[in-house]
Amino acid sequence: MSHDWSALERDLRRQLPARAVLSRRQELFSYDCDGLTLERHCPPLAVLPETTEQVAAVLRLCHQHHVPFVARGSGTGLSGGALVDQQALLVVTSRMRQLLKVDLDNHCVTVQPGVINSWVTRAVTGDGFYYAPDPSSQVVCSIGGNVAENSGGVHCLKYGVTSNHVLGLEVVLPDGSVTQLGNGLCESPELDLRGAFIGSEGTLGIATAITLRLLRAPDCVNVLLADFSTMEAAGEAVRAVTAAGLLPAGMEIMDNVTINAVNDFFGYDEYPRDAAAVLLIELDGQAAEVQASALQAERLCHEAGARGLRRADDPTECAVLWKGRKSAFSAVGKITPTYYVQDGVVPRSSLPTVLTAIERLSQEHGLPVANVFHAGDGNLHPLILYSASEPEVEHRVKELGAAILKECLAVGGSISGEHGIGADKRCYLDWMFAPEDLETWRCCDGRLIPSNAPTPARCCRRRGPVGSQPNGPSPCRQALICSDQPFLLINHSC
Predict the structure, then answer these.
(1) Angle between helices 256-266 and 315-326 (to 10 degrees)
(2) For residues 19 and 67, is the Cβ–Cβ distance under 8 A?
């Protein structure tokens, strides 16, 4: 479907400040991809609104001109959720960065979607509070993007993902109307559609004000670092700790490739270079509880085969142990500037099996893989390393990524944990879900937004078999097309 971009741009400039509309190609190049750099598509037009009213005006114009839109925050997503791979308007919320309300009496804060994740904790830490969801990109990722992807992070094992911490949402629907989801309370007797919206990747509208739950900072925090000679032993330690009934705030594993990348990145050896894997365990709570849990976790790690153990109880020392994990993706980027991150979930008991399979697949495809992941909930993040200058390498990378997802599904896992579906994995949905499930999602929009609303660009109607085998250069593009008809809701958090 062709669109009159000149007419849309003219109308947008009437409604928005001059600096809010980007139409020059050199300006738009900044938005040709998100964290998924494997695919790049420059949007035809972009807007950067600063208020709810401006967002509503933009979506009303999209509705009037029958132009699809794609919402974007900081652009740190890893599944192509902010990728404009169709002719669509890009709506960027990065200038909406106000903390609208801090309500410590009720343990909550209301922010605009462009507020950076770490800013929330920074704003309230002096009062003894913090915001729990902490993706590795928390110093750059936005709250609006976290809501769109239902992001998790290191502490999601104990404290849950974004949907567990959102109390209310002001949302602009695709027709430009504004509505409220949730009432700012943890529990409500009324119909609550927060769960449908969070994780819907911008397919149901754009959140313009988000009320977040704050937690009291724990009295005591200990971080354990255990290193192992095999990945299987590290996996056994994870199994033993959880089987014993301990509930760490976080449990993270890094393999040897990642360990050495991190050490090289910092210029000193924070982790043992010869370890096959290191396991980080964070325990928090009251001092006596943490002390008892730490001693038990140390014993279980030793029994599982840990070669060495370090325990930090000082906040600075704890931050040092976590620094390498938080910087892992950046560190791997020094090995190769291009990598492709997958995001599968497996039962904890299957971690050794799947990690062995990933190593085998890596050798078969001739592509190195670094593994760093949330071990406590079995959320794998294999980083496939490659050189963009190598002929036909992107096809091999996608094939390897698809093969890894198949291994996750084979043990009863999922194709996505916290990175969403996006443009990257929408063609694999029927590997995991039945046709009836996909049809139900397709019909969901009619319950939430007007039936005549224009379709967001990534909310695509099925045409033919979804999830074709990845034997072509761009299987996702062959599977789904943009449509102005009722769309398929791609919500990884359902």
Answers:
(1) 110
(2) no
Helices (H), 312-392: 315-326, 328-335, 351-365
| Ranges under pLDDT 70 in the chain | 1, 444-494
Is 182 in contact with 167 (CB distance < 8 Å)? yes
Contact call for residues 426 and 491 (beta carbons, < 8 A): no
pLDDT tens digits, one per residue of 331-341: 998 888 899 99
Q: Distance between CA atoms of 382 and 76, rounded to whole angstroms?
A: 17
Residue-wise pLDDT tens digits, 38-91: 889 999 999 999 999 999 999 999 999 999 999 999 999 999 999 998 899 999
Which amino acid is residue 115, in one-letter code? Answer: V
How many domains does the chain fold into? 4
Residue 378 to residue 354: CA distance in whole angstroms: 10
Q: Is residue 184 located within the same domain as residue 112?
A: yes
Listed in sequence order, the residues at least 6 apart from 337 whose beta carbon sits closer than 8 Å to its beta carbon are 388
Q: In this structure, what token pair is assigned to residue 306?
A: 């840990």
Our measurement of the distance from residue 106's CA atom to the centroid of its chain's CA atoms, rounded to an integer in Å, reads: 27
Please answer whether residues 227 and 484 qualify as being in contact, where contact means their C-beta atoms are separated by less than 8 angstroms. Answer: no
- Residue 452 inside a domain? The answer is no
The dihedral of CA 30, 32, 34, 35: what is its sign? negative
The answer to whether the Cα torsion of 23, 26, 29, 30 is positive or negative is negative
Burial 350-384 (b: 16+ CB within 10 A, else e): bbbbbbebbeebbeebebebbbbbbbbbbbbbbbb
Q: 27: domain range?
A: 5-92
